[in-house]
Design goal:
By secondary structure, the protein is mainly α. The model has no long low-confidence stretch (mean pLDDT 86). The longest helix has 20 residues. The radius of gyration is 25 Å and the shape is elongated. A two-stranded antiparallel ribbon has the order 1-2. It contains 14 helices and two strands. The termini are far apart. A hairpin with a 5-residue loop joins strand 1 and strand 2.
Length: 260
C-alpha cells in the first residue's frame, strides 16, 4: 500500500492510495494518467447527458443531488441506445423512460440488459392492451429471443393472422424446454397457443378448458402476478364462453387491474 500523485489529462492532480503488486500499481497509475479527473469526467458526462436528452421532454428525476446526476447520465445512455437501435424503437421503451421519475430506478438498472427488459415489458403490455402489431414488431426483431419472448411472438402472430410464423415460433420455443418437459409450465403455455391455432373451436372443447385452468392455477402459484394478469383475458374468455360468470367476477375481484 502506498500513496501516489496522479496527473490527469485535464491538468488536475490528486493523491490516491493504491494496493497490490508494484507492477499492478504502475499499470493502474499509467491508466489513470490517461484519464480526466473524476470531477471533470462527471461534469463532462452531465453536459453530454443534457445534449442527448434535449428535446425529449423527460421528467425531472427525484433523489439526492449525486443520485440525480448519476441517473441522468444513465438515462441519457439509454435514450441514445434507443434512438440508434430500431428494435428498441419498435417496442417503444422511450415511453417507459419518460414515465420513470426515480433516480434510484435508473441506478439499479444501469446496464444494457435493462433496455431489453424495458422493451420486453413494454411489448408485453401492448399485447395486454390489444396493440398486437406494435408488440409483434418488437418480438419479431429480437436476434436471440428466449423462450418467453418466442411465446409472446407466437401470441402476436396468433392475434394478427400470421399462423405459419406462430407455429415456427412455437417449434423454436419448444426446442428450448429443458429436462422433464412434461412438468414444464413454460411448455404448457406454449401448448395453449398451439391448441388455439390447431382448433379454431377451442372454446367449445373441455380439453382446452382443463389445460387452461390447470396452467392458470400453476401460474398463480409459481410465477409473479404479472404472468397471471397477462393470461387473465383467456381465462375470462373461457368463463364467458362456458357461462361461468360467477368465476369470472371472482377473478376480476382478485385482479382489479383488468376488466371484462
Amino acid at each position: 500500500m502506498a500513496k501516489y500523485e496522479i496527473n490527469y489529462t485535464c491538468g488536475h492532480t490528486s493523491t490516491v492510495q493504491l494496493f497490490g503488486k508494484c507492477s499492478e500499481r504502475e499499470r493502474k497509475i499509467e491508466w489513470m494518467e490517461r484519464q480526466e479527473c473524476p470531477e471533470c469526467r462527471r461534469k463532462r458526462e452531465a453536459e453530454e447527458a443534457v445534449k442527448v436528452t434535449e428535446g425529449l421532454e423527460l421528467p425531472e428525476l427525484e433523489g439526492s443531488e449525486k443520485q440525480v446526476a448519476w441517473a441522468n447520465c444513465i438515462r441519457a445512455r439509454f435514450a441514445e441506445e434507443i434512438n440508434s437501435n430500431e428494435k428498441y424503437q419498435n417496442g417503444n421503451p422511450m415511453k417507459v423512460l419518460k414515465s420513470v421519475t426515480s433516480a434510484k430506478t435508473f441506478i439499479d438498472m444501469q446496464d444494457r440488459n435493462a433496455l431489453q427488459t424495458i422493451g420486453y415489458n413494454t411489448a408485453s403490455a401492448w399485447i395486454e392492451t390489444g396493440r398486437y402489431e406494435g408488440a409483434y414488431a418488437w418480438f419479431s426483431a429480437q436476434e436471440q429471443p428466449n423462450l418467453m419472448s418466442l411465446h409472446k411472438l407466437a401470441v402476436c402472430c396468433e392475434k394478427t393472422g400470421r399462423r405459419d410464423e406462430a407455429f415456427c415460433a412455437l417449434r423454436q420455443a419448444e426446442d428450448m424446454v429443458g429436462d422433464e418437459p412434461e412438468k414444464s409450465l413454460e411448455l404448457r403455455l406454449l401448448r395453449l397457443v398451439r391448441y388455439r391455432l390447431e382448433h379454431p373451436d377451442y372454446l367449445s372443447r373441455d380439453e382446452y378448458g382443463s389445460l387452461l385452468s390447470d396452467s392458470f392455477d400453476r401460474i398463480r402459484k409459481e410465477l409473479p402476478s404479472g404472468f397471471a394478469i397477462f393470461h387473465l383475458p383467456w381465462m375470462l374468455e373461457w368463463y364467458k364462453a362456458t357461462r361461468q360468470y360467477k368465476k369470472a367476477c371472482e377473478l376480476l375481484d382478485e385482479f382489479p387491474e383488468k376488466s371484462m
